[in-house]
Write a structure and sequence with these properties.
Order of helices and strands: HHHHEEHEHEHHEHHEHEHEHHEHHEE
Radius of gyration: 20 Å
Strand content: 5-15%
Strand order of the largest sheet: 9-1-10-11
CATH architecture: Alpha-Beta Barrel
Bound molecules: ligand V47
Distance between the termini: 23 Å
Number of strands: 11
Number of helices: 16
Number of domains: 1
CATH class: Alpha Beta
CATH superfamily: Aldolase class I
Length: about 375
């Protein structure tokens, strides 16, 4: 493989990878531009195995999208709706509690809950939803509200982000998912999501969360109008932030799904680009412990392949995911934990059911040796 990496013109990057030396912005760009996906993937696999061995994580989780009513109406999003739109919905606190109640017989350890930027739900609603979930399922970990929502909630509360997070934690918030990051570049935000929180503020909120003891994830929505340089700027900003706080758990590249969006004339990402984003992220984000292949966005089969291209996490059982489904995902929206175990085992890895903070719940032995 080393020879093939050299023939691909990546010998100097290989040396850095083997030495554990940090890659530069230009290294990242060269990896994105290189068409030898096996060479790029093999290097990402070296880092993956150095950091996580064969371990491949998944979680038994439940997604709840409490409302799709949104004032931002980003062009890449098929989920967000105006308040009076036909497909607009909003769950009451009791609706959310019922969703949790319905699945009490399943070994769910995490509730992943996000929604739109709602024009008039009061701050108390969000606190009541958190408290309601914990009332029904006291031991569950609530990973909720993207940094964009947290910024909105601080506005509603009339308090600083740090103080708002304290109140949310008190009500039951345990960690923050990685959504809303999109692509940080102001050019992309101006064209695709001009009303959304700017990229630098997203990062500031994530760092504030880390300082308050909350772990968060980070995403990048790729495969629309962004340049490779803008992808690299995004990754660079995340790596810098992680150097400061160490609070990010996982990076999740999100493949753009155009259907039913204002950008529906664009094509979906290719398998090679999906793998490339995982591999470059694994190589460049040397301070992120985990790279997640979100099967809902890239399909379970490619997510399985990505376990040899840098990814060490397949997210989870999910169920009732609406954001990608509305934008045309055909991956289905739930997967059994036994299927995840099979996908991971067949990739020659060790399946580990984890909690949100990567605490081990159950290790499933490999069957191939
Ligand atoms: O914030 C919106 C993105 C995100 C589209 O933290 C789209 O572990 C593709 O953030 N095509 C929500 N993507 C999903 C998300 C997530 C998912 C799984 C795990 C985690 C985690 C986070 O999806 C949104 C937005 O960035 N999105 N529209 C679309 N058409």
């Amino acid at each position: 493989m080393q020879n093939s990496i050299k023939r691909a013109g990546l010998g100097d990057i290989y040396d850095k990878v083997v030495e554990g030396e940090r890659l530069s912005f230009d290294d990242g760009l060269r990896l994105y531009r290189n068409s030898n996906i096996l060479a790029v993937g093999a290097m990402a696999n070296i880092v993956r195995e150095k950091m996580n061995g064969d371990n491949t994580y998944f979680i038994y989780n439940q997604h709840i999208n409490y409302s799709n009513i949104c004032t931002n109406l980003c062009k890449f999003c098929a989920f967000g709706k105006e308040k009076d739109a036909e497909l607009a919905y909003e769950m009451t606190v009791d609706d959310v509690k019922r969703k949790v109640q319905e699945r009490l017989d399943e070994p769910i350890t995490e509730i992943h809950m996000v929604g739109g930027i709602h024009p008039d739900l009061p701050f108390s609603y969000y606190l009541d939803v958190l408290r309601g979930i914990k009332e029904v399922r006291p031991d569950v970990h609530i990973q909720a509200f993207t940094c964009v929502e947290i910024g909105h909630l601080a506005g509603l509360a009339g308090k600083s982000v740090a103080d708002t997070l304290e109140i949310l934690k008190e009500a039951g918030l345990d960690s923050i998912p990685g959504g809303g990051a999109e692509v940080f570049a102001p050019r992309i935000r101006e064209i695709t999501c001009k009303d959304k929180l700017p990229g630098n503020e997203w990062i500031e909120i994530a760092k504030t969360a880390h300082r308050s003891g909350l772990k968060t994830n980070a995403t990048m929505l790729y495969g629309h109008i962004e340049t490779l340089e803008e992808r690299m700027e995004h990754l660079h900003a995340l790596r810098d932030a992680q150097d400061e706080t160490g609070g990010f758990l996982a990076f999740i590249p999100l493949a753009f799904h155009p259907k039913n969006t204002e950008m529906s004339t664009l094509s979906r990402s290719t398998g090679i680009d999906d793998l490339k984003n995982i591999a470059v992220a694994r190589l460049f984000l040397d301070n992120f412990p985990h790279i997640k292949a979100y099967w809902v966005m890239i399909g379970p089969k490619l997510a399985q392949v990505s376990l040899s291209f840098g990814a060490d996490d397949m997210d989870g059982t999910v169920k009732e995911e609406i954001i990608t489904r509305m934008a045309g995902s055909e991956s289905g929206h739930t997967i059994g934990s036994s299927t995840l175990v099979r996908l991971i085992r067949e990739a020659g890895r060790t399946p580990i059911e984890r909690g949100t903070l990567y605490n081990i719940i159950e290790t499933h032995p490999r069957t191939d040796n």
